[in-house]
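User: I'm new to structure prediction. If I give you an amino acid sequence, what do you actually give back? Let's try with this one:
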Amino acid sequence: MSCAEYSFHVPDLQELGGVLQKGLKANFADVQVSVVDCPDLTKEPFTFPVKGICGKTRIVEVGGVPYLLPLVNKEKVYDVNKIAKEVKLPGAFILGAGAGPFHILGFNSEFMPIILTESENNPPINGSYIARINPEDRGCLLEKYSDKYPGFGCALLANLFASEGKPGKVIEVKVRRRTGKLNFVTCLRQTIEEHYGEKPVGMGGTFVVQKGKVKTHIMPAEFSSCPLKSDEDVNQWLHFYEMTAPLVCLPVFVSRDPGFDLRLEHTHCFSHHGEGGHYHYDTTPDTVEYVGYFSPAELLYRIDQPKETHSIGRD
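Assistant: Good question. You get back a string of structure tokens that encode the predicted 3D arrangement of the chain. For your 315 residues, that looks like this:
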């Protein structure tokens, strides 16, 4: 597989916090941005296998939407442990959003990778979730990956944030009551893009929708047999839901593409009440509350970039 490396602009955390404090006020009524010690992410509601998201931070984009649309390319399957080695960080803690490993599961799904990858001295830990369409009632069926399925695979496309999983300083963002039209992640990303311009900044981490509801989607278990050639085609294929807080989200975003055909933002979510999928935006602006913890990425790794591309299905 091809693998390209790129160095992001990494702002000072205090400076970046000030940029976000100012920018988020255009979209939310109440905004509080601080630089804090990362909370212990092994605790509820996160339940990650590591305490933090700091140390040798990377964003990794694997494959891409052109391997899913207009028709699926079933040769595009990956192993997260191998990805960690490819980005020169064996033993990395990896979270993010991607397509589930259909070659292992036997069906297509939304994938929420939460994986402490293997290292020389430690076996891997898979805390991931998958969301699929329940064949009985067409609702959401959220499953803890390791409860039922083997391996550490993903497929087709993935947007990942990798780190050493260590405690450290992070940017804490608390917002309430959305007054603008942008979703939480888009507002973060566009605020950074407007300030840093031609200097791409990458961010990852986790946030919780503490109150309110959000629009999500889940892909069908079966890949489309008809070519999906437009966003309208894609939206007719997907199943959309309104899901209820609390939801734990795994965002990965880049302020601007430095020339690698990146998906600029991608966020999946899970919960402890059986809901999860691809996050679009909150549907309860007057009551929604978010709290998030983010770290800037030092490096970008672009793995197996599609040679033929398009802009369909990247919402």
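You can read the tokens as a compact description of the fold. Here is one thing that stands out. The domain at 3-303 is CATH 3.30.1330.80 (60s Ribosomal Protein L30; Chain: A;).
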